[in-house]
């Protein structure tokens, strides 16, 4: 169980991005974080990870989240990532093995095998020696997932992984995420496409600075909840009831 209690985040410019959010996410679930622009979705991930100043507490399986930092994978929004960084696809995936290996040891044969296997799982093994700057957005996102697979994380946070990517990459990524979920990993994804939430997620967290609703997809995607945060009429084509 990932337990977020009374999480509040105020940025240095005094923007209150999150106020007193308390939510529990059962382990082994694939959960979507939804809400309008500026609702604090990215901040929820960053606050839970302690990347921004926060108050409140976050625990995973009863332990403070800081204790399992090496077993957490976080992929931030693509717009914030530097695709021009001069490394190859394989080197990028190998980075996933570093926390376990210890930062000052060089990756060896075993780490390369783990990384190549991860690349195979996302259909990117042929690109191993290509520079990441030479990938499409969808291919890059698959490589980032391969890095997560190589890391063998128990808790996976992805911020808008499907923005601007091709449908094939999205399908490959979702297949791997379903597999990770079935292996018992806990996965939190910031997602804005409400039409797919029923297909993709076991549960949802609906945010609008505060927690509006959380639970099974059907419990969260109600007319009332959606109208509250997106406004009347915004939900007619997304299957709200
Ligand atoms: N580093 C920062 N410094 C100051 N304010 C910030 C910072 N990051 C985010 N904010 C503000 O905090 C609020 C929540 O931002 P956040 O990025 O968490 O929202 P979001 O729900 O992920 O939005 P979007 O759907 O647009 O990506 C917004 O008002 C935003 O402008």
From TrEMBL:
InterPro entries in alphabetical order: AAA+_ATPase (IPR003593), ABC_transporter-like_ATP-bd (IPR003439), ABC_transporter-like_CS (IPR017871), Metal_Ion_Import_ABC (IPR050153), P-loop_NTPase (IPR027417)
Lineage: Bacteria, Bacillati, Bacillota, Bacilli, Lactobacillales
Domain ABC transporter: 2-234
GO MF annotations in UniProt: ATP binding; ATP hydrolysis activity
Record-given protein name: Iron/zinc/copper transport system ATP-binding protein
Coiled-coil annotated spans: none
Domain of life of the source: Bacteria
Organism listed in the record: Atopostipes suicloacalis DSM 15692
Keywords: ATP-binding, Nucleotide-binding, Transport
Family (UniProt): Belongs to the ABC transporter superfamily.
